[in-house]
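Field reference: "sequence" (input) and "structure" (output). Example, AraC-type arabinose-binding/dimerisation domain-containing protein:
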Amino acid sequence: MKQYTLDPQALIGGVIAEDNDQQLVQLSLQRDNEIPVYETDAIVLLIVLNGSAQITTEKETIDTRGLQVVRLEPHEAHSIRALENHTNILVVKQLTHELVFSKKLRFGSCCL
């Protein structure tokens, strides 16, 4: 088990932790800061911790507020723009998305 502490005063943010399967990134944005269009082969979760942000893909734009989560599919190009100061977003990039565990393990029936 590992524990990480986010720095709400961080300038822009950065990678918190990463391994072969997953990357955790903290974004600390001020109003109108924008992360330009970005695409990855990972499943991406954008967890807006506080503040608000606009997430834009080729197909749609979503305004998010604190405690909302946006899920992006692999290769779904997107940009992020802060709508207010002190917008903190935790980005979880799931770098591998093949089914690794059996259904028994996935639903909590371990070691049978």
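The two ends are 24 Å apart (CA to CA).
The domain at 12-106 is CATH 2.60.120.10 (Jelly Rolls).
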